[in-house]
Write a structure and sequence with these properties.
Length: about 80
C-alpha cells in the first residue's frame, strides 16, 4: 500500500499527521495481503520526512526526478509488517 498525506496548514505542528498515519498503518497491517507500506517524498520536504521516520519507515531509494518542470530528488520509504 502506498501512503499519501496532506494536513491543512492550521492543523500542522501538533502531531496529528503522525498519529493518524500510525493508526492507518496499524489498520492496514491487519489485512494479511498487505506486506508493506511505502511512501515517496521530495528530499526538501523535511516535515514529511520527519513524519515517515517517526512511523519507523526506512529510506530504501533515492532517485533524481523532474516535478513540475523542476529537477528534484525523490525519496522512497518502506515499512514491512
Ligand atoms: C507532511 C505534513 C502532513 C506534516 O505535518 P506535521 O504537522 O509536521 O506532522 P505531525 O502532525 O506529525 O506533527 C509533528 C510536529 O508537531 C510537533 N508537535 C507539537 N505538539 C505535539 C504533540 N502534542 N504531539 C506530537 N507532536 C507534536 C512535533 O514536534 C512535530 O514537529 P517537528 O517535526 O518540527 O519536530 C504537513 O507538513 C503537510 O501537510 N504538508 C503539505 C503536504 C505534503 O507535503 N505532504 C507530504 C507529501 S509526500
Amino acid at each position: 500500500m502506498e501512503l499519501g498525506f496532506t494536513l491543512m496548514h492550521a492543523a500542522q505542528g501538533r502531531g496529528i499527521a503522525t498519529e493518524a498515519l500510525r493508526a492507518l498503518v496499524q489498520a492496514l497491517f491487519r489485512f494479511p495481503q498487505v506486506r508493506c507500506v511505502v511512501a515517496e517524498t521530495d528530499e526538501r520536504n523535511r516535515a514529511s520526512i520527519r513524519v515517515l521516520e517517526r512511523l519507523g519507515m526506512t529510506l530504501v531509494e533515492r532517485r533524481e526526478a523532474v516535478f513540475k518542470n523542476e529537477p528534484c530528488v525523490e525519496l522512497r520509504y518502506r515499512l514491512a509488517r
